[in-house]
Specification:
This protein has 151 residues and is mainly α. 45% of the residues lie in helices and 7% in strands. The chain contains 6 helices and 4 strands, in the order E-H-E-H-H-E-H-H-E-H. The chain has helices at residues 9-24, 47-55, 72-75, 84-93, 97-101, 126-149, and strands at 2-3, 34-35, 79-81, 103-105. The protein has a two-stranded parallel ribbon with strand order 1-2. A two-stranded parallel ribbon has the order 3-4. Helix 1 (9-24) links the parallel strand 1 and strand 2 (34-35). Helix 1 (9-24) packs parallel to helix 6 (126-149) and helix 2 (47-55) crosses helix 6 (126-149). The longest helix is centred in the C-terminal third of the chain and has 24 residues, at 126-149. The chain is globular and about 40 Å long. The two termini are 21 Å apart. Bound molecules: 4-nitrophenyl phosphate (4NP). The site of 4-nitrophenyl phosphate has 11 residues, from loops.
Length: 151
């Protein structure tokens, strides 16, 4: 799960997906998140994101921001990006066609081919974080159901 700062959207997507995988008893999938900027590396998620996730039953307080690197292409089968800008930044680090086929907009899981972005909640208020949570939750449900059927 990749966004810009790795302190709002992608740690939430990581936490929600891990939570749902645990609930579903799926143990063979590992989940991580990173940011394209590296500007917040070493930091825990934004307090607003932590608070909103907790309100919705998911603890992301201990996650730590890190920068996405080209080495991630070797470590992960799928790389979900939150918006078009993240998509460009990640694609610019890809070396091979195999790397490139791993990259997909996260919301294309729930709305295939629509190329919708998870809006950046950084500059907005609490309702922006809840909107992001709703989008992430709905999309992770679909992803986990897909994984269940392939278990
Ligand atoms: P994120 O949100 O990409 O969802 O983690 C942001 C976090 C930090 C900044 C922008 C967006 N920033 O400008 O520092």
């Amino acid at each position: 799960m990749v966004c810009l700062g790795n302190i709002c959207r992608s740690p939430l997507a990581e936490g929600v997906l891990r939570h749902k995988l645990n609930e579903a008893g799926i143990t063979h999938v590992s989940v991580d998140s990173a940011g394209t900027s590296g500007q917040h590396s070493g930091e825990n998620p934004d307090a607003r994101s932590v608070r909103n996730a907790k309100k919705n039953g998911v603890d992301i307080s201990t996650l730590v921001s890190r920068k996405f690197t080209a080495a991630d292409f070797g470590k992960f089968d799928r790389i979900y990006v939150m918006d078009q800008s993240n998509y460009r930044d990640v694609m610019n680090l890809a070396h091979t066609d195999e790397d490139r086929t791993k990259v997909e907009l996260f919301l294309n899981i729930s709305a295939p081919g629509k190329n919708k972005a998870v809006p950046d909640p950084w500059y907005g208020g609490e309702e922006g974080f809840q909107h992001v949570f709703d989008l992430v939750q709905e999309t992770c449900d679909i992803l986990v159901n897909e994984m269940k059927s392939k278990k």
